[in-house]
Design a protein that fits this description.
The complex is a heterodimer of chains A (582) and B (198). Helix content of chain A is 37%, strand content 17%. Chain A is α+β, with helices and mostly antiparallel strands and 582 residues long. Chain A folds into two domains: 13-124, Beta Polymerase, domain 2; 261-581, Cytochrome-c3 Hydrogenase, chain B, CATH 1.10.645.10. In chain A, helix 9 (306-335) packs antiparallel against helix 16 (469-493) and helix 9 (306-335) packs antiparallel against helix 19. The longest helix of chain A is centred in the middle third of the chain and has 30 residues, at 306-335. Chain B has two domains: 2-44, no CATH class; 71-178, Alpha-Beta Plaits (2-Layer Sandwich), CATH 3.30.70. Chain B has seven helices and seven strands. In chain B, the strands form two sheets. In chain B, strands 1, 2, 5 and 7 form a four-stranded mixed β-sheet that branches. In chain B, strands 3-4-6 form a three-stranded antiparallel β-sheet. In chain B, strand 1 (69-77) and strand 2 (83-85) form a beta hairpin. The longest helix of chain B is centred in the first third of the chain and has 23 residues, at 6-28. The chains are: A alpha+beta (582), B alpha+beta (198). At the A-B interface, helix 7, helix 10, helix 11 and helix 12 of A face helix 1, helix 3, strand 3, strand 4 and helix 4 of B. The complex binds iron/sulfur cluster (SF4) (2 copies). One iron/sulfur cluster binds at residues 71, 96-99, 101-102, 124, 129-135 of chain B. One iron/sulfur cluster binds next to helix 3 of chain B.
């Protein structure tokens, strides 16, 4: 497989839209800058004429010194190929306003809400522009460069207070409230009156209405699923409007685990972000490190050694296998097959984590990648175990899962035809990963825009065509089998050699510029958009989280299904709250 | 059309196999499957079947050499029992630490007031430490290393000062033999080149 020739990136948008679009000429940057008033027009052209149907990532950047707010869009073609990047620059004067692109790509919906929440950029014509990660009534927009947290210590790490005069002090002692809170100047708790923060949320659901039929009045009911509910896999909440048992409308509510990962990331040095990426999707820290390392390596212009590339592939594929096994096990929990499949999955996961632990030093928080390779080679003993697992154990265990569940009539009747998502809707809502492929779109970044050494392996892109829950289950089994294929080839081909291409250092020099690194993570496209201004800390650090964006279609798939099926539909999306809420 | 229940039956065969395996494996390993190192190794090998459970805390899974948990400061002990801490108070670990939980007060000579290569105070806020291992990775003097002791639950906050952090080089060599051998070789080589130059 070779990378498809980037034909359309050569398409000169500036020539097509003179005066509206210009090439981004800043050193280290690429893409197009679009005049904000013409954004929708250009976006429709990009989608319809150039064929970029998949909006992958939308994010903001606050260029405080330049007095600009920038919105960065990464769009792809589901037929494959590299990204088209375009940006809109807005003067940094409140209110910062721009047209919403949600009408063009529905997948922008949650991401634009996030930008509004964190940057205070107002999207006109957005169907539901409310805060999403922070709570209603939160003061300010925390990702702005001039916003400071209650524990504010220093602009960037390393903090000067730690050395050489590092007398220890607890951070909470510095806050007058002894807690991680800050209040507006002049805030008086006595004069404050509470408003119902949920009012705006409930108003977005279909209004209660009473229907009288055969002399019986029926009402719709509103149910809060979560945030404390075992089916939601963490502190996730869905507000559901029900007509009897049927879902009429649904809104996901999130942010309960929000810790402003990106703000922390911008205070960190480049290397310090590596262990933080582990804490996103904590089931797959081995693959979370990767796209971040990739983005920074792109900017630094360094290569990864051959052996390290193979180790990265092997670890990522192992991670995918254990992720999918756990997903299936947990899906069974959701459906009431309580814990037998889940524990079978945990057995295999244990064995895989033993390898992660031996190589990286930790079972879940691996922190294994470094810029230019991985921290250390896989120890000989662990490598032997890895080979034993891949060649002798895991293939049989995947078949066992298949036998255990795939034909079980009860299970099949709970999944077949439920939660249907059409291919068009899947693309429109920016689905990626198994969600997209189960709707019949064979889009897999490992093939569509190959990275690392994936172009050397012979494997199929798993795809299923019914777009229902059953296919979303089956595609996981398919993917595990493909992963085994990749692992077998990678283990056979892996060359000897060093695992780092550069001298390890805690201070890396990253030239000014931007980069977007993305991989096909077990949950979908995991991307990191990183901007450097040549200093030791990233100027912008954004995570394109598949768990988050894959929820854009949640309402679509649940409407007209039973409330009991919501649990299974959500389970099959495969969310992890650490990544969803960041 | 298939008989209804065939799929369920197929699945139940898998569960039945697991069920019987748990007895058969116990019988096969009679008396040796639990509370013995071989039994434990068997239960986490590629041939593991039956019951996976480890009877913690009676049994503990041995941690691999690279396992990392809360750092400690290495000290060398002379024959007279004098302890010399390896740390030179260079501050690299404090700068590399992602959550910034290492606090170092650089030592100074009481007479001249000039800085000396010794930490006067060294504090790690172990509740904030994310066990990333960067401090150990980037310390140029092999002075701070990651521990294997994970049983540190306590009622209060784990604020570790220099005394609490110090552990002998012997202990380090015990928990990380390969790393220690490699580092010793590197130090010996360095000393040799230095001697050759002088
Ligand atoms: S432990 Fe190592 S890195 Fe940290 S101050 Fe001491 S010598 Fe420097
Ligand atoms: S292990 Fe990581 S977080 Fe803990 S003290 Fe060392 S550098 Fe800091």
């Amino acid at each position: 497989m070779t990378t498809p020739a980037p034909i359309t990136t050569q398409f000169d948008l500036a020539e097509k839209f003179p005066g509206t679009v210009s090439a981004d000429a800043r050193p280290g940057y690429a893409g197009w800058i679009v005049a904000p008033e013409k954004l929708t027009e250009v976006a429709i052209f990009i989608r319809d004429e150039l064929g970029y149907d998949l909006l992958s990532s939308v994010t903001g950047v606050d260029y405080l010194a330049e007095g600009l707010m920038e919105i960065v869009y990464h769009v792809y073609k589901t037929s494959g190929g590299p990204a088209l990047v375009f940006k809109a620059q807005l003067p940094r004067l409140d209110p910062v306003k721009v047209a919403s692109l949600t009408p063009v790509w529905l997948g922008a919906e949650l991401q634009e809400r996030e930008i509004w929440d964190l940057y205070g950029i107002h999207f006109e014509n957005h169907p539901d522009l409310r805060r999403i990660l922070m709570w209603e009534g939160f003061d300010g927009h925390p990702m702005r460069k001039d916003w400071k947290e209650a524990f504010y210590d220093d602009e960037v790490k390393p903090f000067k207070s730690r050395w050489p005069e590092g007398k220890h002090a607890f951070a909470e002692d510095r806050s007058p409230f002894g807690d991680n809170v800050s209040f507006e100047a002049g805030f008086d708790p006595e004069k404050w009156t509470a408003t119902d923060p949920e009012e705006a949320l409930y108003a977005t659901l279909k209004k209660y209405k009473t229907v009288v039929k055969d002399g019986i009045a029926t009402d719709h009911i509103l149910v809060n699923m979560g945030p404390q509910h075992p089916s939601t896999h963490g502190v996730f909440r869905a507000v559901v409007m029900l007509d009897g048992e049927n879902v009429v409308s649904l809104k996901p509510v999130m942010g309960y685990l929000h810790r402003n990962h990106e703000k922390i990331g911008e205070r960190n040095t480049f290397l310090q972000n590596m262990p933080y990426t582990d804490r996103l999707d904590y089931f797959n820290s081995m693959s979370n490190n990767w796209p971040y390392a990739m983005a920074v390596e792109k900017m630094m212009g360094i290569q990864v050694t051959e052996r390290a590339e193979y180790i990265r592939v092997i670890m990522a594929e192992l991670s995918r296998i254990q992720n999918h096994m756990i997903l299936i096990g947990m899906l069974m929990n959701d459906l009431g097959a309580y814990f037998t499949p889940a524990l079978y999955a945990f057995e295999e996961r244990e064995l895989i984590l033993d390898i992660f632990e031996a190589a990286s030093g930790s079972r879940m928080m691996c922190n294994y990648h470094r810029f230019g390779g991985v921290v250390r080679d896989v120890p000989a003993e662990a490598l032997q175990k890895l080979k034993d697992l891949v060649f002798e154990r895991l293939p049989g265990k995947i078949d066992e899962f298949d036998r255990l569940l795939s034909e079980n009539e009860i299970f099949v009747s709970r999944l077949k035809g439920i939660g249907y998502l059409s291919p068009e809707d899947a693309i429109r809502t920016s689905m990626t990963g198994p969600m997209l492929r189960a709707s019949g779109i064979p889009y897999d970044i490992r093939r569509a825009d190959p990275y690392s050494v994936y172009d050397r392996f012979d494997f199929n892109v798993a795809v299923r065509y019914n777009g229902d829950l059953y296919d979303r289950y089956l595609i996981r089994i398919d993917e595990m089998r493909e992963s085994i294929k990749i692992l077998e080839q990678a283990l056979r081909q892996m060359p000897e050699g060093p695992v780092m291409s550069v001298k390890p250092t805690y201070q890396v020099k990253v030239p000014a510029g931007e980069a977007y690194g993305r991989i096909e993570s077990p949950k979908g496209e995991l991307g990191f958009y990183v901007v450097s201004n040549g200093k030791p800390n990233p100027y912008r650090y954004h995570v394109r989280a598949p768990s988050f964006i894959n929820l854009t279609s949640l309402e679509m798939t649940c409407v007209n299904e039973k409330i009991a099926d919501f649990v299974a539909i959500l389970g099959a999306v495969d969310i992890v709250l650490g990544e969803l809420d960041r | 059309m298939d008989t209804y229940g065939k799929g369920i039956f197929k699945g139940l065969m898998v569960t039945a196999k697991h069920f019987f395996d748990s007895y058969l494996d116990d019988i096969k390993w009679w008396g040796k499957r639990y509370y013995t190192p071989e039994g434990l190794a068997h239960r986490s090998s590629k041939d593991a079947k039956g019951i996976f459970t480890v009877q913690y805390p009676e049994e503990k899974v041995p941690v691999p050499e690279e396992f990392r948990y809360i750092p400690f400061l290495v000290y060398d002990e002379s024959e007279t029992g004098e302890k010399t801490i390896r740390c030179t108070s260079c501050g690299i670990c404090a700068k590399a630490c992602p959550p910034q939980c290492i606090w170092i007060v650089r030592g100074s000579d009481p007479n001249t007031g000039r800085p000396v290569p010794q930490p006067a105070e060294f504090t790690i806020d172990a509740d904030i430490c994310m066990n990333c291992g960067f401090c150990a990775e980037y310390c140029p003097f092999d002075a701070i290393k990651m521990d294997h002791d994970y049983e540190i639950a306590s009622y209060g906050r784990n604020l570790l000062n220099k005394e609490a952090l110090m552990k002998p080089a012997k202990y380090y060599a015990e928990i990380r033999p390969l790393n220690n051998a490699r580092e010793e070789a590197a130090r010996a080589e360095k000393a040799a080149t230095k001697a050759a130059k002088a």
